[in-house]
Amino acid sequence: MEDKADLREGRLVVAAEGGSAWPLTPAVHVVQLVSGEDTHQLVSRVKTEEQLGRLGAEQMADSILVGDSAYEVVPGYVAEVGAPAPERKPNSETDLLAAFILNKM
Q1: Looking at the 3D structure of the chain, how many domains does it have?
Q2: Tens digit of pLDDT for each residue in 59-93?
Q3: pLDDT for residue 20 is more than 60
Q4: In Å, what is the CA distance from 67 to each residue of 19, 44, 52?
Q5: Which of 88, 99, 96, 40 is nearest to 64 (CA)?
Q6: pTM to 2 decimals?
Q7: 104 domain residue, yes or no
Q8: Which residues does 27 contact at the CB level (< 8 Å), separation at least 6?
Q9: Which segments of the chain are extended strands (E)?
Q10: Looking at the domain assignment, is residue 95 inside a domain?
């Protein structure tokens, strides 16, 4: 089976898109509250390590502690994929001619 995506050097590389790569940030998905109160409304949210650090959270394997509250988490990554560049309009006669020829083929 051909590899479709790979994690390399902190980046998500997608072979199906010509080797496009996006930076990854370690994160967790907060699955459920195990004990305490969900004062920060973390359940069902995804938080990066940086965001957890600002909350004073401590991560231990598949759980985090925030103050007196304990949560079950699923460790993973967040990839920030930028929006595709807007299609530029032809601005010269050469561009217009090329677009005309390509549309007629």
Answers
A1: 1
A2: 999 999 999 999 999 999 998 777 665 666 657 77
A3: yes
A4: 42, 18, 12
A5: 40
A6: 0.69
A7: no
A8: 46, 47, 48, 49, 75, 76, 77, 78
A9: 5-8, 11-14, 20-35, 46-48, 58-60, 63-66, 69-79
A10: no
